[in-house]
Amino acid sequence: MIGKNGVARAEIDWAAVRRRIALIGENREVSRAAKDAILTERARSLARPLEAPTSRTADLSLVTFLLTGERYGIEAHLVIEIGRLSHFSPLPGAPPHLVGITNLRGEILPIFDLRAVLGLSRRALDDMSRLVVLGKHRAEFGILADATRELTALASSEVLRTPPSVSEDARRYMRGVTQDALVVLDGTALLEDRRLFCDLEDEARP
Predict the structure, then answer these.
(1) Given a cut of 90, is residue 187 above it in pLDDT?
(2) CA distance linking residue 114 with residue 122, whole number of Å
(3) What total of structural domains would you count in the chain?
(4) How far apart are the first and last CA of the chain?
């Protein structure tokens, strides 16, 4: 091709350009579902015993998430999976902390909102809400999160005492806080609390 100034110009291969742009887009675009799957797999990996001691005694592996702008962490070995809350069914007459139930691969799973349990301000659910599924050996219930964050490992000694300003009701579910304001929840306390137990058979009876 000859330009206006008479100099020969190489013809642009627009098909190749489009392929390169598409490839860049594919490399950059990671779906939310894929991110959740990666986070779940890393949580399972962190939950496994370490094969060899490290220089830092990191004996706590935590999945971290956001609730009303604050960072929370819960033991990774109690996290069955992390997903996106796509749909749920409210239960008539349920307490404020019981959002409803959802179908998790054929199993009925109760969904709880820890904001009501921890005395935090609540907002309407939206399509960005995440579901952190907890259980010791199987999925027992899910808790809502505004967003899931990174996995972290720290030493128990880094968890400081819960501030006295926190209510007694909320303190029972907390192991403490770290210097960088990560609230470490007590997953076992949550799983063993009768208030977070939902007898779905009783709910189904007329």
Answers:
(1) yes
(2) 10
(3) 1
(4) 81
